[in-house]
Protein 1
Amino acid sequence: MSFLIKKIFFSGIFNGCMFLLLFIGIQNSINKSKVNFLINETIELPISFIVGSSFILGSILGSFNVFNMNNE
């Protein structure tokens, strides 16, 4: 199995588990807020969901970065 496929597989499994833990953890969250986009705003969401989902999205996007450390 190539390195890229292993990296994508591990990232998918890890972020999927983090997403499940996020849903379990926000069940009793009381503090809610709206996210303002350029055109519309979202419904009231728990702040922990907003922060957690942005962390998971950043982790997914960061796993696609390829850094070539060879100084040749």
Protein 2
Amino acid sequence: MSEAASALQLEDSRVRLGLKENWRQFALLIVINAFVGGMVGLERTVVPLIGSEEFGITSTTLVVSFIVSFGVIKALANLVSGQLADAWGRKRVLVLGWLVGLPVPFMIIWAPSWGWIIAANALLGINQGLAWSMTVIMKVDLGGPKSRGLAVGLNEFAGYLAVGVTAFLTGYLASRYGLRPVPIYLGIGYAVLGALLSITLIRDTRDHVRLEASASSKQSTPMSFREIFVLTSFRDRNLFAASQAGLVNNLNDGMSWGIFPLFFASFGLGVERIGILKAVYPATWGILQIATGPLSDRWGRKGLIVAGMWIQSAGLFLTAATRQFEWWLVGSLLLGLGTAMVYPSLIAAVFGYAIGALSAGIIADIFGMAWAIGTIATLTFLSGAFVALMMREKARGGLDVAQSIELDVGVQTGLKGGDAISPLPTNTKS
């Protein structure tokens, strides 16, 4: 046996796949992704209000422009994160994501103009595209092929629960100390802790991928992003139905991120109560999808996607049509429940954030914010109807479990080739 082969064998003997064998690193990555989610939650309540109240911006389209910069840059960062992970290693890309994110809270605190907020969100998009992607990839690496669903589910749970908790905390702090700087101090803590933990305690996971590849008896040819796009857009009706619903789902989130705080404030709701409403939606989404993920395996994905999109639509219509906190709270709960039902089975389309915020902003400027929310609600209902008509249900799920998990990770992170997982194994069913 050659020295290189002996070294590889020795290295592999120290590497184990599975959650039990890697629980310390896995748990640490969950904590780090909570900090990643907290960076987004930092903006859910206060940033739109900073634009309207501190900078006096009257155009809703201009206010939500910070979400457009975030969505576009995050989508591009997702596309390159997989290649960077293969070339540089997962840990280095994770650390890079945090280093890019460190200036964000300081820029929001000191911003003398709205252009600074837009620039800060471009950096936040890079932070999210790299750091969130690496936490999910590294969990998948550690857990191995048998635990991918659980790895992705726990990652999303931690991230979106942190979004909700931080949205509440920033609203609470803003109601007592103003929109800036005190609520944004949370972001400084998240960024510093996330960077320090990533630098000092996280270990790279590429050896786990090599071990899985060497132990696998079935080899698959990784697909390029272009091939994934063609498959999800034209060739497979199930994947196309799921991908358009994923686009609309993120479109909803982008719209609610930018429009809801302004809408609630226009009726005199205080920032603390706005923070509660902004917290309920992502927190409900994050908590409930731990249950809805396994249910989609048992009950089938089509029914949950259709029902989830229609429940989201009902929540949006209720929000647009009512003027009381209690009804808005119910609307936020419905939006979170519906998102939790659809999210485990959908293919992410990050450009939906930018499209949702921009289109809702334009409609709001022309017809009013209630019309913008109602328009997105109608689109969400139609998206669910499209899934009902187009998706072909299979036994125990509308999409193959491994296919939906791996393809979604592949689309979110732009994975192809190298050490990255194959987004679409060749032995999956169509």
Protein 3
Amino acid sequence: MSARKQASKIRKIIKGRCPTVSVRMDTGTAGEWININGSKDEFGRFTPKEKICLKTFGIETGLGGGATLMPDEKEFFIKNKRVAKDRSRFKHW
């Protein structure tokens, strides 16, 4: 499946539960990555409601603005629409 189709499916899944967040493919050589930004301000920070919503997918928002799905997480995310909270098997650092 192409990166665009994967991004489209992920966008539909996330925006189905969290309609106020922005879900976009990254640009250039990082085009396989998916960026998720909040609606709070121009820096992409998340509202408390968006943080709770993204946490149901197992996506950690951290303190700054935005979250990212790595290329190897995308297939797992699409197959498991109700994603497990444990994403530790995808952490490479």
